Amino acid sequence: MGSEKGMALFLATFVNKVDKKGRVSVPATFRATLAPQTFAGVVAFRSFTAPCVEAGGIDWMERLSAGTDDLAAFSAEQDELTSLIFADSRQLPFDPEGRIILPEDLMAHAGITEAAAFVGKGKTFQIWEPAAAAAVQEELRQRAMKNRPTLALPKGGPA
Amino acid sequence: MGSEKGMALFLATFVNKVDKKGRVSVPATFRATLAPQTFAGVVAFRSFTAPCVEAGGIDWMERLSAGTDDLAAFSAEQDELTSLIFADSRQLPFDPEGRIILPEDLMAHAGITEAAAFVGKGKTFQIWEPAAAAAVQEELRQRAMKNRPTLALPKGGPA
DNA sequence: CCTGCACCCATTGACGCCCATAAAACACCA
DNA sequence: TGGTGTTTTATGGGCGTCAATGGGTGCAGG
Q: Do the Cβ atoms of B65 and A140 come within 8 Å?
């Protein structure tokens, strides 16, 4: 099993079924990258940029908290972000088989009914209605073929 | 073997068969350059510049992750890049014989059916349908003989 | 007593591991 | 230098294991 040290990335897209109880299996590879965390489960909240659920491990929340701490206390911006993120987020624990229960409002926000797409985003991931995820992905891909986006990389490594 | 100080590179082109299970042997020399990585396998995604599969080691992905971490969380730019890079990429682990399983959609995108060409690109490599790879190679070679491309090198090294 | 929700068990189908064979690169020796 | 034996690589197939899924059951709280 996964006792690697360096890698802790969420990669690829997996589509799993949602059963009548609202349970979904979190992909095994995602569970593996979540394994070292202190909370055995997923933290999730409704995205405010897309019809999907933002998700990650508990340490990611702590990182976000560190980010909002840098904003001025009582500023409108700080108030807004902390509400959007922390007030809306929940901890979804794994059951013994590695599934989580998707709350009603999260499913409604993403339009999820009978299947959910887990979309890897590196240090975090998103949960989508499968068809919507595919559509957005395809559109991004089309755009990329024209605009060839670039990314500045730290030097020294491979590629 | 294989613990040289200089970074190992992916060189040359190898054509291997794809069996009924979708398995392909990764060339032994490529496995050797991937050996020091934390994940025993390759990371691959559909190229958005050519009908082929882009591939490399996991540390290459981690480097890309470090790059996207410098972008603001929830920014459009960060969202697009992480989707493009991570959502479409897959971890393909080696089996005990050094083979990987090429997923259906990757094979479809590259037009691969019964054989795959592993094309070294230095710090990464590509996987092509053999005939397509040969055609593109030949065309590039023809063009190079006319245009005579040049390459500036960092100074201080050998040659 | 009824409704959840958390744990347990059963099924299945894919994938990972093992073997066995074959072909090729290499080393060694006459 | 050519032949021969050995090691590594490539390939094919069978089988066990685990992940994904569905359903049942017991405990807790209202």
A: no
Is residue B140 classed as helix, strand or coil in its secondary structure? Answer: helix
Rounded-to-integer distance, Cα B25 and Cα A104, Å: 45
Write B19-25 long-range contacts (CB < 8 A, 24+). Answer: B21/B101, B22/B101, B22/B102, B22/B103, B22/B104, B22/B107, B23/B95, B23/B99, B23/B100, B23/B101, B23/B102, B24/B99, B24/B100, B24/B102, B24/B116, B25/B97, B25/B98, B25/B99
Q: How far is B1 from chain A (nearest CA, A)?
A: 20
Q: Which nucleotide, over all strands, has the C1' atom closest to the CA of B23?
A: D11
Q: Chain A within 8 Å of B79 (Cβ-Cβ)? A: yes
Q: What is the pTM of this model?
A: 0.91
A51's tokens: 């019809």
Q: Which two tokens stand for residue A144?
A: 């990329």
Report yes or no: B28 and B139 within 8 Å, Cβ to Cβ: no
- Within 100-159 of B, beta carbons closer than 8 Å to A belong to 123-124
User: B86 vs chain A: nearest CA distance in angstroms?
Assistant: 5
Distance between CA atoms of A156 and A151, rounded to whole angstroms? 15
Across the A/B interface, how many CB contacts are shorter than 8 Å?
109
- Mean pLDDT across A111-115: 96
Q: How far is B90 from chain A (nearest CA, A)?
A: 5
Give the pLDDT confidence of A56-100 residue by residue, as tens digits: 999 999 999 899 888 888 888 898 888 888 999 999 999 999 999
How far is it, in rounded angstroms, from Cα A46 to Cα A85? 8
pLDDT tens digits for range B119-137: 999 999 999 999 999 999 9
Separation of B151 CA and C13 C1' (Å): 52
pLDDT of residue A83: 83
Return chain A residues 92..151 having CB < 7 Å to nucleic acid strand D: 97-99
